[in-house]
Specification:
The protein has 8 helices and 10 strands. By secondary structure, the protein is α+β, with helices and mostly antiparallel strands. The chain has a domain at about 100-280. Strands 1-2-3 form a 3-stranded antiparallel beta sheet. Strand 1 (about 110) and strand 2 form a beta hairpin. The chain is globular and about 95 Å long. About 25% of the residues are buried.
């Protein structure tokens, strides 16, 4: 059997090998730092010295307890999101949309027991209005242009003496004060026309739409008017509604809305003219 002969290592060489071996295994077991940059040692029979690592000490990470998790969850819930600041124009549109939605929510139907016709209604402030012109076929009432289809579209036209008693039971022809109460609620008379007019059905003026916003569901239409001699005028352009308030023995006040203006105005006019009727609840 062959034998391998090795020369005995000199003491200095042996110490170098031993030092390197101890450092290698000891450092690897510790699993820290960079061997070449963090450790310095001396050989030649002198004991080796290792400098401490310059890396920060690792803190012990304790497992989260149930109590810690609850506190963190509460902290997350308590963080309030930043309030979104909307542009002024966006706020106005949102407000208008909210009013339209409110008007739609409040809208319902009222039935006239005399002929079975039904009418949409609109609650505006403390008042309840019909949201359509009256279409009750009372004596001396007429359709615009004597065309029945216009009665379906605009309602019938009445002289004042007929209008004052034309509304069904539980309803009545509004006074000036009742019209103005509504105007105050919706803003002012200067914008009443625009806010009460329907969003379609009004003629344009010099390329500009005559329609309104109908923010409160009143749905004012341009039903025009008529004369006692059988003539008619202004459908599509103007809306006229009788009030119960008299100006004098021969005249009464009408509420007038124009296709090319945003306001609403009053006129004292002869009771023989034919105009629309809008009823308000007692």
């Amino acid at each position: 059997m062959a034998h391998f002969h090795t020369k005995p290592l000199k003491k200095s060489s042996f110490m170098k090998v031993l030092a390197i071996t101890l450092i290698f295994f000891g450092y690897s077991a510790a699993g820290q730092g960079d061997f070449y940059s963090d450790l310095r040692f001396s050989l030649g029979g002198k004991p080796f010295e290792a400098k401490k690592s310059s890396a920060p000490e690792r803190k012990e990470v304790k497992p989260k307890t149930k109590e810690t998790k609850v506190k963190e969850t509460k902290a997350k819930k308590e963080v309030k999101p930043k309030k979104e600041i909307k542009p002024r124009e966006t706020v106005r549109k949102d407000e208008a949309k909210a009013k339209e939605e409110e008007a739609a929510r409040k809208a319902s139907v009222q039935s006239d027991q005399r002929d079975g016709k039904t009418y949409k209604i609109a609650k505006i402030g403390s008042q309840t209005w019909m949201a359509e012109n009256l279409n009750y076929n009372a004596s001396d009432s007429k359709c615009y242009g004597n065309d029945e289809s216009n009665c379906q579209k605009y309602g019938r036209l009445y002289d004042w003496n007929t209008a004052i008693k034309a509304c069904p039971s539980g309803w009545h022809l509004p006074t000036q004060a009742e019209w103005e109460l509504m105007a105050t609620y919706i803003g002012s008379e200067s914008t009443e026309g625009k806010r009460l007019k329907t969003t379609s059905g009004w003629n344009d003026y010099q390329g500009k739409s005559g329609n309104g916003t109908d923010e409160f569901g009143f749905s004012a239409l341009p039903g025009g008017g008529g004369y006692s001699d059988g003539r008619f005028t202004s459908a599509g352009y103007y809306g006229y509604w009788w009030s119960a308030s008299e100006g004098n023995s021969n005249g009464a006040y009408i509420r007038y809305i124009n296709y090319n203006y945003e306001n609403a105005t009053w006129y004292n006019i002869n009771k023989s003219y034919l105009f629309s009727v809008r009823c308000v609840q007692d």
